[in-house]
Amino acid sequence: MRGQIALVPPGGYCIDPESLTQSFALMGRCDSLGAATGGSGAPVGVLTVSIARTAKDTPLPDATQIAEAANVTAPQDTRKTSDSIIFKTAGAPPGPELSSLHWRGVAKIDNFIIGAALFGPEGQRAVSSEGASVLAQMLERTATKTSAR
After folding, report:
1. Three-state secondary structure call for residue 142
2. Are 7 and 149 in contact (CB under 8 A)?
3. Domains of the chain
4. C-alpha pair distances (Å), 46 with each of 58, 60, 82, 111, 145
5. 133 Cβ contact list (under 8 Å, min separation 6)
6. Residues 2-58: pLDDT tens digits?
7. pLDDT tens across 88-143, in order?
8. What is the Cα–Cα distance from 1 to 32, expressed in whole angstroms?
9. How far apart are CA 45 and CA 42, in angstroms?
């Protein structure tokens, strides 16, 4: 978004530079993206992030609205803060080796809405409650770094 958002990956994840656009990024474990170090302690997963402009007074959508817009199942295990929502849901994964069960998160940072989804292999750490923590960390780090600019 022309430098107005500082997207910060969660621990052990890196942004795939081939995927990066003004409003989208794909992240994975650093070691799976070819980095010499990092990633070994992070859960295996694929994290997608999209960013859209919004009016400063636009409210954050609720989990049900997000699920309906994404055409996924009803939200489960919803975790809400004053500026973010994270929930578990199911829907078409971006690859056959990934579980349909995944985590989604949305946060409002200044005049932007950030949407994210974390997919992982069936029964692995990224689709457990740890996946919610991975998303929360990315959203918190991004909000902190963006606000510090």
Report:
1. helix
2. no
3. 13-147 (3.40.1000)
4. 29, 24, 26, 26, 22
5. none
6. 678 899 999 999 999 999 998 999 999 998 888 877 777 899 999 999 999 998 888
7. 999 999 999 999 999 999 999 888 999 999 999 999 999 999 999 999 999 999 99
8. 26
9. 9
pTM here is 0.93
DSSP string covering 39-81: -TTSPP-EEEEEEEE--TTPPPPPHHHHHHHHT-PPPEEEEE-
Q: Distance between CA atoms of 139 and 9, rounded to whole angstroms?
A: 9
With beta carbons less than 8 A apart as the criterion, state whether 111 and 55 touch.
Answer: yes
Phi, psi of 65 (to 5 degrees): -65, -40
Token digits for 120? 């992982």
Sign, CA torsion 87/92/32/107:
negative
Rounded to whole angstroms, the Cα distance separating 70 from 73 reads 9
Residue type, 127: V
Judge contact between 94 and 48, C-beta under 8 A: yes
Nearest CA to 121 among 27, 46, 33, 34? 46
